[in-house]
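Why do we care about 3D structure at all? Because function follows from shape, and shape follows, mostly, from sequence. That is the central idea of this module. The next example makes it concrete: a single protein chain, its amino acid sequence, and then its structure expressed as tokens.
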Amino acid sequence: MTNRDATMGVMEAIAKRKSVRSYASDRLDRETINGLLVAATRAPTAIHEEQWAFVVVQGRALLKQLSELARPPFTAQHAPGQADQSEESFANFHDPNFDMFYDADTLIVICAKSTGRFVAADCWLAAENLMLAAYAMGLGTCVIGSAVGGLNSPQIKTELGIPVEFDVVAPVIVGVPNGETPITQRANPLILSWKGGS
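And the structure:
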């Protein structure tokens, strides 16, 4: 299923990981997904609380239905013509046929109880671990931040089996990339200050 590269260094994975928005129809097996979840739980966690929890959703048809439910809250907040948003960036979301999960077959939703000062940070660190591990396995990933509001609706939480006391923090699609995704460039680090040292 995966094209695992046991020789890949962490710096290479960081440099080459990218957001994939086109997926082949291959289904990820449980062993692969469990490996990704184990990688996620090796992330730093404040006071060793490990408050993250995971929901796995598989199947293109199911994710398409989920997209149709999760998209309206986002589009309602990002209506065309809003001055603070790029209309081009969000134009697709107003297309009723747009799949916000990009035809991926697997969505991993990282959740946490809504208590604790550093819970969200822990979940995002877990998401990064998961994405780097996926890249090293030859898989693609993309964070779907636009789905957070919709996934936290009572209806969707009930359908996904997410208890009331948990919130969706980081939804990540994962799968076999459909073709090559170019690596995007990043600006040099903006250093505001550097005190001491040589």
